[in-house]
Write a structure and sequence with these properties.
Growth Hormone, Chain: A, two-stranded antiparallel sheet, 498 residues, mainly alpha
Length: 498
């Protein structure tokens, strides 16, 4: 139970706390793209083969996918603010390890630790509605959710600028400095709401989820290099699916599962998570395709000849668009509800791809298309946590939002593999180098639009909340105790559900 001083703190400084959480989201998400500008140089920098150094990017994505639901579950058990502090501290350690690394193994360890820190984002999203007044809730959740896309978008030009202006280790020292500021900020201004619920960590469930996800995502992410029909690709994907099916059967039998699959199977949660895959696919597709088209040589007849830094700067406004649209997204959620807001976001995302399909002859045209697509991602990402939090019981809020973030990550991983396959399967040789054709880029835009409009169709089937409240099926074990155990000021601040 919270003491009076904590209740005053929660009510008095919500804007400062939300700003600190959004800063943390940006710091964590930026690590996913910060090594891309130096990826081609990593074999020389780390004295390893290119196939091995590719894991410097992949390991962060894989560990982040596992970390998000696990961090959410831990946050529900021990308190969200505590997990946020640990996640921020892990980001400090991981960044310092990378900054001190000159060989592959310690770099992979550091990048894995940076991936662990990605659990910060879903935990922060689930905490926000407990520490802000109802009128701020939708906009605050929208801003925090947008950091997943914004951090990745601004990370590329920022990292390219740092890499061009100094030693490559400076990338990680900057990340360590930002993470250190984050630890202090979270400890100082983010209130510790007593929202922990007694429970035990499902270690077997966590290991099963990790094994299944890693196997499946490795198969998908390596498919463009190995080939979709290669035995290694098919074996990894099949093994991942089998392990995840066995994991699901196990989770249904334990009293305190890592992920409550019964809650996740409710139509609002299930359909929102499936839509998250489609929108995550759409976000990553343009993040991969547009920079490559910007950097393609002018001699191809369609390439725009931009440097890595220039391409990143053309993409940066898209990331800023996501953040600027947070108040609009919050207002939409309050006015028309989270479901229609999600549909609107997916439509705008699809429209961005259609603009790119017909306007790809100049860098500014692609910037406009990227801004439209990013606006759709920002609107859609803002709506998904609200749908999840409205449907999930309070004691499972962190794990539920973590699972939603995981589904976005699955969508982005699949998009990366599909886009790479399309771009490498239709090429032309120029100066001895195989480059994607204009048709390959156009096909990528069509696939991205199709994924976005699939998200529209899925979101349209999400039932209205009142329908699900009536069919909340059988009472979930412990749900009544969880609701009764919420601190009074948290219950009072819980936002009205759209």
């Amino acid at each position: 139970m919270s003491n009076p001083d904590e209740a005053v703190e929660v009510a008095r400084n919500p804007l400062v706390a939300v700003a600190a959480l959004c800063f943390g989201g940006l710091a964590a998400a930026t690590t996913q793209t910060m090594v891309i500008p130096i990826q081609s140089e990593l074999p020389q920098l780390l004295h390893a083969d290119a196939a091995d150094t590719a894991w410097v990017v992949t390991v962060t994505l894989l560990v982040a996918a596992i970390s998000m639901p696990v961090s959410g579950r831990l946050a529900d058990m021990v308190g969200k603010q505590r997990v946020l502090v640990v996640s921020a501290a892990t980001l400090v350690v991981g960044s310092v390890v990378c900054a001190l690394s000159s060989t592959l193994l310690p770099m992979l360890v550091g990048r894995a630790l940076q991936g662990v820190a990605m659990g910060f984002i879903p935990v922060a999203i689930s905490l926000i509605r407990e520490i802000v007044p109802p009128k701020m809730a939708a906009t605050s959740v929208a801003a925090m959710s947008a950091t997943l896309g914004v951090g990745g978008a601004i990370g590329l030009p920022l990292a390219a600028w740092i890499a061009d202006s100094g030693h490559w280790h400076l990338l990680f020292w900057v990340a360590a400095g930002l993470a250190t500021i984050l630890v202090v900020a979270v400890e100082a201004v983010v209130p510790h709401v007593h929202d922990a619920h007694r429970g035990r960590l499902d270690v077997v469930g966590a290991l099963g989820l990790a094994l299944g996800l890693v196997s499946f995502l490795v198969g998908v992410s390596k498919a463009s290099a190995w080939g979709w029909g290669d035995a290694r690709t098919l074996g990894a994907i099949a093994a991942g699916v089998v392990v995840l099916l066995a994991w699901g059967a196990y989770e249904l039998r334990v009293s305190e599962p890592m992920v409550d699959l019964r809650t996740s199977a409710q139509r609002p949660v299930l359909l929102t998570n499936i839509a998250a895959m489609a929108i995550g696919f759409g976000m990553m597709a343009q993040s991969i395709v547009v920079p490559q088209l910007l950097q393609a040589p002018v001699s191809t007849g369609y390439g725009l000849g931009q440097t890595v830094l220039q391409a990143g700067l053309w993409m940066a406004p898209g990331g800023l668009m996501m953040m600027l649209l947070s108040p609009v997204s919050g207002a939409l959620i309050g006015r028309v509800g989270a479901k229609l807001t999600l549909i609107a976001g997916a439509i705008v995302l699809g429209a961005g791809y259609l603009v790119a399909l017909f306007l790809m002859g100049a860098a500014w045209q692609l910037m406009v298309a990227a801004c439209i697509a990013s606006a759709g991602v920002g609107i859609g990402y803002a709506a998904m946590p609200t749908l999840i939090l409205d449907a999930a019981p309070p004691r499972e809020a962190g794990a539920a939002v973590g699972l939603n973030a995981l589904m976005r990550s699955v969508g982005t991983t699949i998009a990366a593999a599909v886009m790479a396959t399309v771009l490498t399967s239709d090429t032309k040789v120029l100066g001895g180098i195989a480059l994607p054709t204009q048709h390959a880029f156009q096909l990528c835009f069509v696939i991205g639009a199709a994924a976005a409009f699939l998200g529209v169709a899925i979101a349209a089937t999400i039932p209205r909340r009142q329908d699900d409240e009536v069919s909340a099926d059988l009472p979930r074990e412990g749900h009544g105790e969880a609701v009764a155990g919420i601190a009074p000021h948290v219950a009072d601040l819980e936002p009205h559900r759209s």
